[in-house]
Amino acid sequence: GAGGCRGAASAACARPRPPACRPRPMAMAGAAPPPAASVAHPPASGALGQHSFRVLLYDLRCDGLAADERSDYYLRMDFAGFKAFRTNCERGASSVQWNFEAGFEYSLASLEKLACQELRVQCLGRGSEQPLGEAAVNLATLACGPMSVQLTLRCRRGGTSVGTVSFACQMRQRSQNLTVTCTDLNLIGHGGSPMPARLVACCSLEGAGAQLALPLSETGCWPGPCTLAFDTTLGDLLKAPPYEFLRFSVINESDGYEGEAVVEFRRAFPSERGAAVPFRVPVLFAGSADGQELAEPEHIGELTGSVMYQNLPTYAQMVGGMCVDGQVEGGYILIEGLPFPGSLGQPPPLWRDRTEQQDDDAQMQQDEEVGAFDESQLMKALEKIPLPRPWEMRHVRRSRLRSRCGGLGRPYFADPRSRRTTFVDPRLLPEHWDQRIDPQSGRVYYQFDVTRQTTFVNPRACPPDWEMRISKTGGVYFAYSPTEQSTFIDPRGLPEHMSAALDRHGRMYFMDHTAKGTTWNDPRDVEKEPTLTRWRRAEHERWWKDEVWQEIERQVDDVARRDLRMDLVE
After folding, report:
1. Do residues 209 and 42 make contact, with C-beta atoms less than 8 angstroms apart?
2. Which long-range contacts (CB under 8 A, 24 or more apart) does 273-282 make?
């Protein structure tokens, strides 16, 4: 059998050469008391003091068997004396596969017993009760290791190898009463005004039918605790993609739907059990304006609060990897602090959501967030910058609740060429670029007038001395004017104290303005996606603000020069 579990502690591809670079010129005082705490529970199930696992065995296969093609084989499996299975007979030579699947619920009183119990597998020939070979793996390794397992079949006498057996085993510990508690909920409109409303909370997990209704609060405040409980596993709770989440529907005083806020479990999960995690998520309204369906939901406010988890399962299986005779190869641990197979000297690397998302989607998301800037001076200055033709600015119609929060609805932009709308502001594009909307998908794209090529990658926010271009074949590249070199590597998204440059051979290096040094090492290569996203957003916001003020200064200078010319004429 394999070892038990330990408590967790904390080829380069040739690229085409880019084109040569040629330089060109809260709660209010005196408010009514908040609503009382609310709780929603699922139906009670299961015996107290029992630890329950959902087990599924499938994809059974034997390889390397020494037999002829006329041999018939079957497998006998014993799951810790709790369940026993026998497959049908299959004919094969060295490799045999069974179309077999078994699912059941496994319960035990103490988790410590997992390391002492085994799943045993025997391979037998038709009509024989003596196994050709057998293998075993302990249940602790299955509960916290990879789902894919490969074991060596050995003779009872002598222990020589007669082949291998491989299978998949899902062994997911359930929590029949996993509790999610939200406290200090605050609904905030634009400008920081409280939004009077009531909330309806529900969970996206399949089978989590419990729903929680929070009563009308004139101050948009629910101190809580507000609790939902349901039956699930850690793997189901924290999977991605897609994310599982709590949805808060915002209902106004007239029982009209205003929008919803989503708190994703994986993005609001503590590194230590029992700790509360603060969150701040947007409240979005999807609807129509001026008879046209909005390309993007309207941002009407924010929901803040804290979330805490109780009765979490102890075990969760690893993501990916394979268990080979008790030794783990590859794979990731789902979250920090989980048990891991005893054969590993240290915890496996932490799994991160690797949902493939192209750079253009990330850039578009950053642009959309620019509309949420809450700096009144910047927004007033932005109003003085004209839209490029033929774009038109409109404002989302506001319901009575949102009108009470003050101001016009969020601006959006209409493109008469495609008859579509978007929240992505078409202003402040670099020279030779044009923003458009695809009439079929509604996605924003950009045209480079020099080559007449298009891309979904946003050309904005390039650092000083850098410029994004598109080649005649449609490839996006970045030109660096000081050395007249170019590269396919995006120079954007670095921390504020660093910048990218190209040497005279076109090699990218990085300047650290704090340490006053340079390096070949890209700081983005060693950071996780949340940090990279934060860097990109911060850089984009800095760029946007600088561009707005520079454009205003250019307009002031133009007016001053025009007035001076008129004075000279007079």
Report:
1. yes
2. 273/309, 273/312, 273/337, 274/308, 274/309, 274/310, 275/308, 276/183, 276/306, 276/307, 276/308, 277/306, 277/307, 277/308, 278/304, 278/305, 278/306, 279/304, 279/305, 279/306, 279/307, 280/304, 282/372
Spatial separation of the C-alpha atoms in residues 509 and 511, rounded to whole Å? 7
Residue 466's nearest CA partner among 369, 537, 538, 539 is 539
**pLDDT, tens digit (0-9, with 9 covering 90-100), for 342-395:** 888 888 888 876 543 443 344 444 444 444 444 556 666 677 788 898 999 887
Same domain, 157 and 186: no
Q: Assign residue 127 the CATH number of its domain.
A: 2.60.40.150
Rounded CA separation 204/126 (Å)? 48
Per the domain annotation, does 478 fall within a domain? yes
Q: Same domain, yes or no, for 282 and 239?
A: yes
Same domain as 81, residue 213? no
The parent domain of residue 378 ranges over 359-552
Same domain, 140 and 67: yes
For 477-517, what is each residue's pLDDT tens digit?
Answer: 999 999 999 999 999 999 999 999 999 999 999 999 998 89
In a domain, 353, yes or no: no
485 in the same domain as 365: yes
CA 413, 435, 394: angle at the middle one, nearest 5?
5
Instruction: Return the closest-CA partner of residue 542 out of 503, 492, 506, 480.
Output: 492
